[in-house]
């Protein structure tokens, strides 16, 4: 399964600034363990960010997003869209093989 995680600020973007180092560590941890495939800010950045995650079920990704320092400190929230890939580019097929 794939999960599209849309992070939306619930407070002014400036309110998230003190939590950026913790958020970056959170991203790095989940990129390192292979759960997060891609992450980045939206354009404009005032909206939030997007993460593509895989390798865990819906319940696990809900627990993971609840641990983001932005969420813990009430400056952002996630919308989670779970996707069952129908077609995958050959360059991504080895990464996106079903694991849940």
Give a written overview of the molecule.
It is a single chain. With 100 residues, the chain is α+β, with helices and mostly antiparallel strands. It has 4 helices and 4 strands. A 4-stranded antiparallel beta sheet has the order 2-3-1-4. The protein is elongated and about 40 Å long. It starts with a strand and ends in a 17-residue tail after the last strand.
Strand content: 25-35%
Averaged pLDDT, please? Answer: 93
Number of helices: 4
| Molecular shape | elongated
Query: Which stretches of 5+ consecutive residues score pLDDT under 50?
Result: none
Strand order of the largest sheet: 2-3-1-4
Structural class category: alpha+beta
The largest pleated sheet is described as:
4 strands, antiparallel
Tell me the Rg in angstroms: 14 Å
Which assembly state applies to the chains in this document?
single chain
Give, in order, the helices and strands.
EHHEEHHE
Would you count the extended β strands for me?
Answer: 4
| N- to C-terminal distance | 6 Å
The percent of residues in helical segments reads: 25-40%
